[in-house]
Every structure is written in structure tokens, then in C-alpha cells.
Amino acid sequence: MNTNNLKIAWRTAWKSKLFTLLNILGLAIGFAGFILAYAYIHRENSYDRWNPNYDNIYLIGLINKDNLSDLTPAALAPALKAAVPEIESAGRVARAPFEIPFISENDMFYIKNWLGADRTIADIFAIQLEGLSITNSPEKSIGLLSAEVGKKLFPNEKQAAFKAPKIVSLMNEQSGFTENIHGISKPRLLSNFEYDYIAFKEDIAQGKGDGDNNVYQTYILVRPGTRIEELTAKINTIYHNTIAKQREIKGSIRAEANIYLDPLKNLHLRPRIGSDTGYKIVWALGVLSSVILLLACMNFANLMLVQAQRRFKEIGMKKVFGVTRKRLALQFLLEVFAQCLIAAVIACLLISISWNTMITFFRYDFSSFDFNMSVIGQLGTAVLLATLLSGIYPAYILSGYHPINIIKGQFHNGQRAFSLRSALLMFQFIIAFIFISAMLVINKQMNYMEKSDKGFSVDQVVHIKNLTLFNKPAQFASIRNQMKAIPGIEEVTVVTNYPGGPAPSNEAFTYSDKTYSLDHVGVDFDYFETLGMNLLSGRTFSSSLLSDTTQSIVVNESAARRLGIKQPNGEKISICDQTYTIIGIVKDSKMQGFEQLIKPTAYTLQTKCGYPNHPFKCDILVKVNGHSIRSTMETLKKQWPSINKLDGKYLIYDFLDQQYAALYAKQEQLRQAFTAFSTLVMIVALLGLFSMSAFTISLREKEVSIRRVLGANTRQLFLLLNKPFLQLIGMAILVATPLAWWCTSQWLDGFAYRIHLSWHIFAVGAVLTLLLASITISYQAIKVSIVNPADTLKDE
Q1: Which of 58, 211, 374, 655 could form an SS bridge with 249, CB 3.0 to 4.6 Å?
Q2: Rounded to an integer, what distance in angstroms lies between the CA atom of residue 554 and that of residue 533?
Q3: What is d(CA 66, CA 82) in angstroms, rounded to the nearest whole number?
Q4: For the MacB-like periplasmic core domain, which residue ranges apply (predicted)?
């Protein structure tokens, strides 16, 4: 582009500076949204990709009808390694069922993720310890801290093997329980396999090779090119012919289960067990950011097309003096490119301002995709794509005008160009309406989840992460009495599972000589009262009846329906060689959130079922008076060392409403992200509408003036100018409504408990879209309709 062309481009842009500014701003928003979304998507898809074994690692799980588990028997891994040549390596991982303080001479760290694993796991997941080979070390057990925990407990040590193992105290300094630490592992990039502390052994399940010891996650590393369907069939055969026939698993529900393989690449975003909300967020952000960029490019293309009428003399003169169509097209493309570069600079500023907000919003470390050359590279790619998408067709149209027609004054924009501009604008509002409707549906579903009846109450309930086991009610009686003596504490209980925590174990119950699969929760007296659960019939456990401890059981209404019980009337049900009498039926409760159906559940005070099939009863729930929470917790903190000596001075607690809210934290992120990006989509669409309406209305200034001279009033002129645009947007809403309905229905299908998709939601979206569009257009329409006709017609 020579100097004259630069001057012409600058003068043209300055002459239409409002339109140019709006479109550059639209492009900048598109670029910024695209890069910010890409940063999140890049991070979420980078889990374990750095691992050279990434494509060949699988987690083995069990599926029986609708019940899935990622835990498998201890005997499975060695059996597979010995019998299946496609498997290069197999390893097991056991997770500690509790959280515990690790105390060094320097500091204390509350270990939440404590693992035990076979040494083969270190090779499978590329866990390295500088100065020591985990797989070949003569040590019977090798204990490693993560880089974060190691820095906290041993700030003066390098991330490597220690010269001699270091000792940390567990729970408290006087407990007498210790653990040997052999080193601090190297920092690892994002991975699904995370740990605070991990202990490696040659055989983590030594002496526990029975078939029913379902406490281990089993991972396999398969040979490249292995056919996974055939491998799954082989593993199923081995499981049913050997593992399922062993003494302790034979006859149980697990004996009828089948094997499934879940690839490592799916474990973060789309696991077989767990929520796929993370995948939906990635998908939604990818679509939204691409749409924003596409709409910004459309706005730019629209502007270039409507500017054609103001540049026809320039184009005609250049063609008369021999400028080829190719050179004209290149000139317009370079003009587009220059404006895209300006938009990219503004986008960089927006990204740098928004970066910390992204980190705070997603609560993530984005160091793997920081604001560096990687961002610049992505932005450069976006600039080139935007230039091509928004510049090629306008350049083709503008350079194709015939100079003879222009010189004769026979130039006109043409119906084809007008139809294209209308189609582009209509497409923008189809997209905008879909996302506005989706935003309204997501907000309505989230409000439903927050305000609807869950079957229990977590308000003012404190969850204490206790370490002492209270599997028998008699063991907890003294603790409960001491805690209830503190002013402000209303109810106290201890449980195996709590709302928002790990899902209850699914166990086999015998009723009327038939086997039923029910969730099993171990509770204590006052459990239902602490959580405000409603009793439908019968009664709950009573501390005044000693027989309740070992002879009584309470079921929820789903379990009662499955068993065919309407009223508890002395029915007997058995589990783990222990028979109970059903004494009460409680209302169903959504303990695991709204995405999963409520499962039939049984509650007992004491059971012969043992770990791992039935977890320990150690999580304490405390109902506190809402007017004295702070003072009550301060008093409890002071008295805790004397109340529970094993925990010592470390009273670790959180509020149960926060725990439960974590179940739909990802959904809340989706709502906020969708709201933010839908707003950007609407802003970009309105910018395009503003530019197009302003330019189109400006072309009708003389028509408006003539109509005013002939007696048209301001209201008539206002409706005349607004009508074409509102008709176009109305058509867009009609086309978009079934698409929005289908998209939102697909999202709602992921919830077991959901709102009814009513036409009112889409009506609100339509009114909102039309209102915003009317406000955008009306400024220009009013401005033109009140102009003095003499000022417009004086040159005629």
C-alpha cells in the first residue's frame, strides 16, 4: 500500500470515524474473548498431555446396571499383567479415607490427598524423584511429598531425594504416629494423578489378594495400537473366570459386574464416574468465543459493504486510470488488515486487564498459558483469519464496480448487496438470541437448584474433619455430650457420608429372600435432626432405646418403594450377616446434588460391614445456633484438645453449605461464563446493528426531510425507520427459537432434577432482544427524524 492509498484509507476511516471506531472495538472484543477463552480451553485440555504414555493409559472400573465404580479388587492387576500380553504395565492406587495433618519441625500441612501405590504407578504417570529410582530402590517403602507440600514442611530442602529419610508426626506431636519422608518429587505439570503425599511399595496390596477387596484404583499401560474393545473383552473374561469366583466376592453384586476402561484423556473432562460439566464449559466457551469473533468479522464485512456508496468515485477514478481489480482488492484487504492490527493492540490491553480476573474467576493457575508469545501467536492467527473472513468478500465487491456505470452516475448498491447485509445482520441476532435464551435457562436452573427443597438443610451446620473413628454409638456418646454442653451447639452427630462429600457405598441387602442394591450410610443419634430431614412414617433412632444400636434401620422413601414398603411394620432386612428391623421412612434427599437421581438408601447406627466396602464413621456434623456461630466455634476450638485428644489442637472444619455448593461449582462457573460471553455476543451484535442502522438511515435523510415537508410527524418517521430492522430481528427470533429450545433441552438433560422448559423463558428473551435492538436503532432514527428539512434539502 503506497502513501496515497494510506492517506485515502485514513481519510475514509476518519470520515466515518464513528462506524470505524465501533467496528474496531467490536473486533477487539472478539479477539480478547477468543484469546481468554482459548487460555482456559488450552489449560483444561493439557492435563497429562505431557506424559509420554498419555494415549495408552486406562483406568479400569466396574459397571453393574446403573452403578459404576472406579474401584476394583486387589487381585485384578497382577492377574492381568500375567495373562494379557497387550498390557505393558499395571498398577494399583489406594486413597486414604481421611485427611490428616503432617507436622514437621518447620510447619504443618493438612494432607488431603494421601495415596499408596505400586511402584509401577511411578513409571505409568512419570513421577520422578531426583537422586533415587523409585522402581529400583531397595527401600521397602518410598514416601514422597509433592513440590507444594515439600516447600511448606521442608523449606530448606531441594526437590530431590533426602540423604536420609525425614520424619513427620501425624495428627499431633504427641500422637506417636509418624511417617518417613524420602524426598520431594519434581514439580509436575497439570495431571489427573495428584497427590500431597504418596507412598510407593513393590506390592501395595501385599497379603490382600482376595477378590472382594475393592479399595484400589487399577491403571494399565497398554501397548500402542491395542484394540481396546478386544482388550476389554479379555479383561472381562479374566475377571469373571477368576476374580469373581473367589470366596469373598462370589455371590455378591460385584460378581455380576462388568469391566469398563476409561482412557486417561477422558478422566479430567469426561470421566465415566463424575460430572462432565467441565467438558460442557470448555465446549461452551469454545463456541461462544468463536461466535464472538465471527460476529465481529461479520460487522466489519458489513461496514465495508455499506461504505461502497461513499467510495464509488474513488473506485471509478482508479479503474479509469488503469488500476487493476487485483490491486484494488489487495488495497482493501490491506485496509482491513491495518484496522485488524489496531483492534489486536486494543485486545492486548483488554487481555492484560482481564488476566487477573480470569485467574480469580476460575481459581486456576494459568502459568501454563501465560500472557506471553503464545498469546501473541494466537492473536496473530486470529488477526489473519479475521482479515480473510471480513475482507475477501467486500474487497471482491468493491473492486468489481464498472467505471462506465459509475461515471454515468448509474451506480447503485444493488439488491444483492442489501440482501447480504440483511442476512449477515439476521444471522448475528439468531446467534445472539440463542445465547440470551441459554443464559436465561441456565440462570433459572441454577436458581432452582439453590432454592428448591433438597430434603435436608445445611444452614448453620459445621463439618468437622475428625480423625477418631466412632463406628459404635457408645464410642461417640461422651464426645457428643461434651460438645452439646457448649452454648450455641444444638445438635451433634457423626457419619460415614455427608451432603456434598463422597458418595455412600452401595451394598447388597437381603429382604424377603431377595437381594437389593441400596446405598448404605452409617449415622449416629440425632443425624436426621441435625440435617433437618423429614420423617414420613415410623420413627428415627432413639438414644433411650439400646436395641436401636444393632437392631434398627431407617430407609428413605426410594428404598421403601423399591422394597414395596408403605409403612414400617416390623419388616426385617439383612446386611453383612446382621438383621435389622425397619423402624422409619424418611424423605428422599439430594445428598449428591441435582445431576444424579436419588438412590435408595438405608441408615444404620452400627454394622458388621467393614472397610473398604463400608467407610469409617468419623465425620462430625454440628448444628450451631445462627446467632452465635463465631463465639460458639471459638469456644469449641479452645475445648477441642480436651474433647478429642487424638486430634489435638488441630480443629479442622468447614461449613456444610460450602461443601454442598461445591457439587455445582462447575455449573456456577458455566453460568457466570455464559452470562459474560453472552453479554459480549449481544454487545457485538448491537454494535453491528448500530453501524448498519446509522449508515442506512443516513442514506434516507433526504427522503425523511421530504416526508416531513409533506406533513409526516416524528412518530410516523420513527416507525418508518425502525420497521425494517425490527422486522429483520423478529424473523431472526422466529428462526432461533426452535434452535434455542433444542440446545437448552440438551443441557438440561444432564440433570436428574430440572426446571420445566416453558415458552415464557423464550418470550422474555425475545422481548429483551427486541428492546435492546430498539434502543440501539432509536437513537439514529430520532436524530434523523428531528433534523430541520431545510438543512438537508438546501443543496437540491
Answers
A1: 211
A2: 12
A3: 31
A4: 422-593
